[in-house]
Design brief:
alpha/beta, single chain, ATP-binding, two-stranded antiparallel ribbon, 187 residues, ATP binding
């Protein structure tokens, strides 16, 4: 299937999930993450969930990161440049929803891409080769391109892998892992 077809399919599948299902599946994903050998790093980038899009609830992962005393990095989106600016999440960080209902930091301590060790990535679908499909604006491709090559890229998905994304291309930044409620996929 193409990225466009997969976006349509997985937005529809997500829309059918109840709030209880989203919570249960999100907790299962967080529990799967605890099995990965990724907890010795310092800076972890995570997205704040867009409830209206029925994304994976990252609150469970935020709790794990806080409990492990990690530096948590969140982003603000610039829809003119399709780029993300990253900020350290602290007790003083003010979170506001933008025009697309994305919860974002109002301001804070800016963190450069090269400091980030692990990135948790929102996605709609992924395939068995580690290709991913997002919303199509390229924010994460641009961001991941500017990270260190060693930065771990971890997708979070309610659903299992597709066999292949037929229009994936070499410029797409692939995943190192994708975590579903039932599976840890390594690429």
């Amino acid at each position: 299937m193409t990225k466009s077809e997969l976006r349509k399919k997985y937005k529809a599948l997500r829309s059918e999930l109840s709030e209880d299902q989203i919570e249960d599946l999100s907790m299962a994903i967080a529990n799967q993450l605890l099995k990965l050998p990724i907890w010795d790093f310092s800076f972890y980038h995570i997205f704040l969930s867009i409830e209206e899009q029925k994304e994976v609830n990252t609150d469970y992962i935020l709790n794990i990161l806080s409990g492990k005393d990690k530096n948590i990095v969140i982003s603000r989106s610039n829809f003119t440049t399709n780029e993300l600016t990253h900020f350290l999440l602290t007790d003083n960080t003010v979170i506001k929803k933008n025009n697309y209902n994305i919860p974002e930091p109002a301001d804070g301590i800016e963190i450069s891409n090269d400091k980030i060790d692990v990135v948790f990535i929102p996605l709609l679908a992924f395939d068995k080769k580690g290709n991913r499909v997002g919303y199509g604006k390229g924010f994460y491709d641009t961001f991941l391109d500017k990270c260190n090559p060693e930065t771990l890229k971890i997708g979070l998905s309610f659903f299992e892998a597709e066999n292949e994304i037929s229009d994936a291309f070499e410029g797409d930044v692939g995943l190192d892992y994708c975590i579903t409620p039932k599976t840890i996929c390594a690429f």
